[in-house]
Request: fold
Amino acid sequence: MAHADEAAIFNKDEAKVDWHDKALWFVRQKRDKSAHKVKGWEELRNYASAIKANVLSNLDSYLLQFEENAQKNGVTVHWAANAEEHNKIVHSILQKHNAKKIVKSKSMLTEECHLNPHLEAHGIEVIDTDLGERIVQLAQEPPSHIVLPAIHKKKEEVDVLFQEHLGTKPCDGDPEYLTAEARKHLRNKFIKADAAITGVNFAIADTGGFVVCTNEGNADMGAHLAKVHIACMGMEKLIPQEKHLGIFLRLLGRSATGQPITTYSSHFNKPEPGKEMHIVIVDNGRTEQLSREDFRASLHCIRCGACMNTCPIYRRSGGHSYKSTIPGPIGSILSPGIDLKKHSSLPFASTLCGSCSDVCPVKINIHEQLYKWRQVIVKDVPQPVVKKTALKMAGSVLANTKMYHFAGKSARFMLKHMPRFVIYSKLNAWGHARDLPEVKNDNFDEWYKKRKKNE
Amino acid sequence: MKVGLFIPCYINQLYPQVGIATLELLEKLGMEVVYPTGQTCCGQPLGNSGYEEDSKGICQLFVENFKEFDYIVGPSGSCVYHVKKHFDILEQTEDVKRVRKNTYELCQFIYEVLGKTDLGASFPHKVGIHKSCHGLRGLRLGSCSERMDAHYSTEENLLKEVKGLELKTLNRVDECCGFGGTFSVFEEAISVKMGKDRIQDHIDSDVEVITGADHSCLMHLEGLINRNKQPLKVMHIAEILNSSI
Reply:
């Protein structure tokens, strides 16, 4: 189903739309307040964007440098060309250790690769330990937001879900009780875990270390308790030097939730004695995206989610309406690169208002890329005949003054003289909820010519 | 100074009063204004729908109509933005480059090129500005809420000088109205919801008249206001700046 259809379904419950919109706008406002406190915020964005551009232009050498340094630290580095390889590598590491119980902190990459179903099919239990992710995992839903995966769920819904899966008592959605129960439940899982999987926020080329940011400390809990730590990273997650973290960590926390810094920014450099640390570096379409000049900058993304919180369409259609792992504006420029046909409605799920580009901490020109994807899509993906014909005809009519005047006159005549029920038929999507403008006797052109005559 | 008056297609056909106010305003400011009658459209409806390739004839016709003017001024931020930003699809001849460079949105022309703010207008009403996105984040007619730059607004600068006018502040100062060209019909549900929410913000902020520098957004808002019989009026900023009530 196209985004518009999904969005129309979401909009049937206007009270829920209002609630969803306000919840995310609140996060956007928190972001504004905390960004305002940083002197030189725009300068930080410039630096971050420039560093990412540098990384992408020299990705091959940074990746090799990172691998070499990570290996020196005693970390095993794996390379995965696609999701399938990634899943196989992770599974083979787990098999080697006979690991049956896994805890995983938030990683959009493993969502992208559909790691959980792969491991579960092999009899391995995977527990998402980020609270929001655990909620959607229990509900058997994908995350609807990359930072706030369960933002579409009200606390009352979580209450019911926890009663069913964790055996909690009914509590009218008391967040303190629910969180405490989740904590108990997760603690038990952490203690029994054979291996921990985390994502990677930043991988540092010149040290071979990496940083994982969480607000709940769940990445640390998992990684420190288990014998094996597997960190899965998209190959664009690199930064050249550790000092650059000062830029990205300041931008990330504020852009994501308005916090000055994420509660836990955990630095992992080498395995503890007697334990193993693995890094799986994943391509899965990133090299191809890198090769597309118009869309390369989409790989700057540090997954803060600010473009979702600011997007007036995302806020009113919910993350699931995008039907892609990464929803919202950034997802709408990344996903067509993965499967153009499947995601062809996403670049049109935007008014091109540009708020996403201005909020983006790494200055991705998101709305310009949406415009560019549209040009690609109408060429490469079959379009609805009516839409295509109408626009191609408009191209001819508007390129010809006489035809334009004739068309304008005819349209105004029809609007003025056709009965209301004809004009406001089902075919007129404008008119379902909106009136059409009242048509005046003269258009500007006619008025101007008359004025000229009377001069 | 010879000014070519750019009247976007939908204003020509549906809102002649906006074109008239723009013309009168520019003449009041001492400009020699010519309306090239061969003009049609800027091509934006096609470009935004992905059919940029099919709009080349439209863009070229625009350049032919306006290439002889010192300045090209139009009362629609998004159309002006389209000329400046997206005419890169044409071969960049001297004419094309000059037209792109010299095309201005009306308020921007008055404020930046002519350096005027007080136009002698009076309009004793409570007014809310709808800061249309392409004007705001495309042409940078003002600071936007996402960036941490110092506050400025071209429309506010002009409206503040209008006698009797009371400018109201909104809760969300620059959220999109949901028009978005063909978005308004192909994503109808969200488009309507966004428009409704914008209107409610103006009502909650005690606004009587919504104004802005882009009548396409205002057309969308007006369509909702009229359908829902809400106590608000919609006027293009040129109409307010040209009024002497």
About this structure: The mean pLDDT of chain B is 97. The longest helix of chain B spans residues 188-204.
